Amino acid sequence: MLLSKLLGERFKEKPADAFMDSHIFMLRGGYVRQVSNGIFSLLPPATRAAKKIEQIIREEMDAIDGQEVLFPVVLPAELWQESGRFESVGSELVRFKDRTGRDMVLGMTHEEAAVHMARGEAKSYQKYPFMIYQIQTKFRDEPRARGGLVRVREFTMKDAYSFHTSQEDLEAYYERVLEAYYRIFQRAGLSNVIAIQSDTGMMGGCKAHEFMYLSDVGEDTIVYCEHCDYKSNMEVAVSHIQKGCAEEQEIREVHTPGIKDIASLAEFLNIKESQTIKAAVFFRRDNEMPVVVFIRGDLQVNEVKLKKVVGTEVFPLNDTTGTGLCFGFIGPYNLNAENVQVIFDKSLEGEKNLTCGANKTDYHLMGISVSRDLKVDKFYDVSKVNEGDACLYCGSPLKVSRGIEVGNIFQLGTKYTESMNMQYMDEEGKLKTPIMGCYGIGVGRLLACVIEDNHDEYGPIWPKAVAPWLIHICMLNQTQPEVNDLGFKLYNELKKDWDVLLDDRGAAAGVQFADADLLGAPVRIILSKRNAANGQVEIVTRDKKIKKLVQAENVRQEVSSILEQVK
Fold first, then answer.
1. Quick one: DSSP state of residue 316?
2. What's the rounded Cα separation, in Å, for the pair 213 and 368?
3. The dihedral sign for the CA sequence 491, 492, 498, 504
């Protein structure tokens, strides 16, 4: 490729609206251009890298017996109505009517399409197990698009769906996919990826893992133990909560004028926050009934866990007018809970001598003993884990980090196959419902994370497996015939075996080097008047670890050797 013909301008100024390194370099380097919020066009450098990532994914999916297919982007609403997700999924699913008035959706994920295909083609046990996958454009009307290609609305994704006749078979295949994912990320040049337990979310099912690239700019919070194998997304993380050892006291009412939050209450009464009961109020999406969660005062409510307990989406309720609840002074003792759902967190179980709201303005109660004073039928785990909490499995202090999700895998069970009436005939001639798994990787997000993991202050340092070009030739003093002739000679020779980019613009050295840094080819060949006169060229790796003068006739051999050494 001649750089003079490459579509995509490069510039040195940092974009004002970009904060992640990958987003900054993809804009500066001419990789992407924003079309709308969360919607990008990919220019040739990004397209070339994405295609190489897709090829790695294809090879690894084929290696675990995957069969590539292609589903439609536009799907009839009936399929999503069969699964129940047409009504249960929120506004991120784009719904519309075609010219005949038929309800349609834009595919944001393709479980329904996969079952539709498989139920017509796999009616006998002899077809099982099998896995189908695609690499396809999807649209999710994401409300929080950010970070360039990290969180977008339109994206390219590899999604795979496996079908099994037993849970044991699904679990065995699930492990094969898990290992294949690690190989994909390693081959793409992405290090520091861990698999963690995660919430199944809108996908449903009984078990799920997310593959997290550990990064300080990540949106997801990861909880892990350094002394055992426990790793989890904060959404489903658990810990051992140290209980207090207070003695029981008599209940007494105290005047707390204007004290409506836990921190102020603890300071006012000279007690610890862990000696209080916090009331967090939410409302249910399905009927807007208030949900009051009572939790120890030093903890926070995990809304994902709470959603699982109540069975629907929940949202914080900041105005309790008309609910009968005394905002700022809500407590579980003598609470009038009519038309209110009450949830008790496990952190309160067995606790004594706690302080809570008195359910009247400017008053709290001290000396509450949970087992003595409160009638609790069941305690639930709805609290967030804090750094330093004890690991539930080994007791060591838990660590909290940030990460970017680059892949996910789910054991779906029969959530979709049963609701969509997919059946097969077993060896005994009986109809059975297959068990399903699904597995996703976002191509664009993976590409962005590769840059996050492989860059310096000047631009990307592309791993050779996914680099848009492996070799970048810079011709300094191009007006000199010996430089120009040698440059084009090397370009024509090397491009027979490798992806080569030749800077033929005659630009100043600083401009050429800055552009070469942004384009990030692993190997750079620099031609200058002095070296060309001596029949030599300079070869430098993008990471600056190798720098040498080489005779022109030995360039191919040296480049081959260097490419073997770089990652």
1. E
2. 44
3. positive
Same fold yes or no, 47-237+400-451 and 467-565: no
> What is the model's pTM?
0.86
Pairing of strands 536-541, 341-345: unpaired
DSSP for 341-401, please give it: EEEEEGGGTT--SEEEE-SSTTEEEEEE-HHHH---S-EE--BPP-TTPBPTTT-PBEEEE
Environment class of residue 181 by beta-carbon count within 10 Å: exposed (0-12), middle (13-18) or buried (19+)?
buried
Cα separation, 190 vs 461, whole angstroms:
12
Question: What are the backbone dihedrals phi and psi of residue 476, each rounded to the nearest 5 degrees, phi first?
Answer: -85, 150
Burial-class residue 313 by CB neighbours within 10 Å (0-12, 13-18, 19+).
middle
State the Cα torsion 339-340-341-342 to the nearest 10°: -140
Query: Residue 200 — very low, low, confident or very high, per pLDDT cuts 50/70/90?
Result: low
Select from 432, 451, 517, 532 the least CA-distant residue to 190: 451
Residues ≥6 apart with Cβ < 8 Å to 491 = 473, 500, 502
Alpha carbon of residue 399 to chain centroid: 19
CA distance 398 to 414: 34
Measured between alpha carbons, how far is 554 from 303 in angstroms, rounded to an integer?
63
Q: In terms of DSSP bridges, do strands 363-368 and 354-357 run parallel, antiparallel, or are they unpaired?
A: antiparallel
Domain boundaries, the chain: 47-237+400-451, 252-380, 467-565
Residue range 252-380 forms a domain whose CATH class is: alpha beta
pLDDT for position 339: 85
Integer Cα distance of 194 and 566 in angstroms: 24
Surface-to-core class of residue 126, CB atoms within 10 Å of its CB (0-12 exposed, 13-18 middle, 19+ buried)? exposed
Please state which architecture CATH assigns to domain 47-237+400-451.
Answer: 2-Layer Sandwich (3.30)
Closest CA to 391 of 225, 254, 553, 523: 225
In tens, the pLDDT along 527-552 reads: 999 999 899 999 999 999 999 999 99
SS3 breakdown of the chain: % helix, strand, coil, rounded to 5?
30, 30, 40
- Whether omega before 129 lies within 30 degrees of 0, making that bond cis, reads yes
The CATH H-level superfamily of 467-565 is Anticodon-binding domain (3.40.50.800)
CA 143, CA 125: separation in Å to the nearest integer?
Answer: 42
Radius of gyration of the chain, Cα coordinates, nearest whole angstrom: 29
- Cβ atoms of 503 and 514 within 8 Å: the answer is no
Percent of the chain with pLDDT over 70: 99
Residue 81: is its pLDDT beyond 80? Answer: yes
Q: Which amino acid is at 104?
A: M
Q: Would you state the structure tokens that stand for residue 116, as one six-digit string?
A: 């539709």
